[in-house]
Fold:
Amino acid sequence: MALVIVLGSAALFAVLAAMMIASAQTSRIVTKVNTERSQMKYAAESALAYGQWMIMSDRRRFPNRRLGFRDIQREAVDTESWMGDGKPHDVWVTDGILAHVRVLDAARGWDFSTPKAARKTRQSFALTIGDDEERRERLDAFFDVLEDYLDGNDEPRELGMERDEYSAAGIEEFPRNDRLSLREEVYWLPNIELLIPRLDNEMEVLPQDLVRIVPPRNVRNFAGKPNVFSSSEAVIRMVTGVDGDEMAQLQECIQSWYEVQTPLEECLYLELFNKLNSRMSLHSLGVYTIEVRAGYNNGDITRRMVATLDLRRLPKDYVPYWQKITY
Structure:
């Protein structure tokens, strides 16, 4: 009996010791991961600040902010360009930490922020529908609902919705009857799925640039067409109607622009260049979205940071951040 008690106690102590060792190991791993995640956050912050200052320096040295066009002043010097063209930049934060930085023009996607912007977007969408009457009718319904959501009155449009219609549908406190506060608000509205592009052989992923960021109330809007260099393939194809071959040519020309600054008008055939130039923007407006992904060389731990900042007031004023998100 005593032997059984001794052996049982030994087994219990062994189990407790194993649990303590496992707990210590778990704590060590969790502490290591949290420490490295914190380090990557600060690394991403550093790379973001570096990118901001490089953009400001580039703007001061090269006032011409047209994208995809020849710049004689820039060609005269051998320096890396920092423009809102989506070009990838590698920034070594320390010897072992590398940050990948992309600078995008914030004029990405459709602008629904105000009634005026929504009407302009509606006109742009009308060019992409063609003869599909069913799609046109559903889009008319979406934009009627959107404009009722944004305007300041309670008179519904022909296919729109005001407070009574939302209440009948079981949705209270709608509509806002004011400009958007967040771009995600448009995803609450009926028929928004018509704005989500569908590409062949591609996962049904919502493009990040589908809807344009809403500027703060204390700054002026930055109206304009979606930027070619900063837009996803899905948005470019939806806005311009280009086919697969044309999209492949555009991607090759954008890569050539990144590498040797080849102008788009010299790389694309004329009809495609004119289509892009008329329906989208090839100019940086001065509001930038900086995307940063920082991590160790082995790629075990990475952090992503996205910030949108307005540099249009420089050098007379401060730099306002419209958003700053750490993932």
